[in-house]
Specification:
This protein is globular. The chain is an all-beta fold. A hairpin with a 4-residue loop joins strand 7 and strand 8. It is built from no helices and eleven strands. Strands 2, 4, 5, 6, 9, 10 and 11 form a seven-stranded mixed beta sheet that branches.
């Protein structure tokens, strides 16, 4: 099983980035997907999640209205569109997969670094 995240980079405050994460080795449509992030010196925190069928999405208050999570099951891919980025969004972003009937994330990607300059 592999989760491969990509799309991170350096962007100025107010800019946008789109992260992608591909799940291989499992039936993607059976998994809810989530994005988490960890800033330097801080604990990992929840950012957004989407159910296995895309019917429901959830966001941390800090990103609500700026970030959008979506998925394309035909491509085994989950996305995180990040707009109006702030310096405090700087972190390593991780994608994770959770089997649809479970409450814990089983698989984690390697992370992609997002740096927002002021």
């Amino acid at each position: 099983v592999q989760l491969q995240a990509s799309g991170g980079g350096l962007v100025q405050a107010g800019g946008s980035l789109r992260l992608s994460c591909v799940l291989s080795g499992r039936t993607f449509s059976a998994y809810g997907m989530g994005w988490f992030r960890q800033a330097p010196g801080k604990e990992r925190e929840f950012v957004a999640s989407i159910t296995w069928n895309g019917g429901n999405t959830y966001y941390a208050d800090s990103v609500k209205g700026r970030f959008t999570i979506s998925r394309e099951n035909a491509k085994n891919t989950v996305f995180l569109q990040m707009n109006s980025l702030k310096p405090e969004d700087t972190a390593v972003y991780y994608c994770a997969a959770r089997y649809y009937s479970k409450n814990v994330y089983d698989y984690w990607g390697q992370g992609t670094l997002v740096t927002v300059s002021s």
